[in-house]
Please model this.
Amino acid sequence: MAKRATRVKSNKTPRVLVVEARFYGDIADQLARGAMTVLEDAGVEYERVEVPGALEVPAAIAMAEINAPYDGYVALGCVIRGETSHYDVVAGESARALMDLTLVHGIPLGNGILTVEDNDQAMIRASIGGKNKGGAAAAACLDMIGLRRALAARAST
Model:
């Protein structure tokens, strides 16, 4: 079995940017709560910014990477299926743009943008007492920061 990426201990405290899509505020609050708990428990320095919706999350991360890079990013938001195909566009394009950031720029990122059928599914996935996907996204971000640091350390030896 492959070894799971571990958070590399370093003298440098990671700086993380949490980008929250606020279109569904109650869900975003739950996602942020989970993410902040994980980041605070890990002793990570973090900042939070808000954007209107899921499509704006990748743009905010790209802007930050250009202007004031962080060690990693946590993308939070929710896309709930409606009556039109707009859901498919928003869910697919936000996920594609986040993946592009990770592949093209090597950005450590935890994707906590939920894609769900209804509000009940979203709350189950967002809440700390439920699936805590905000916390999972923050943990994934920290794991990817650790992996990048470990690979950089190997390359320099």
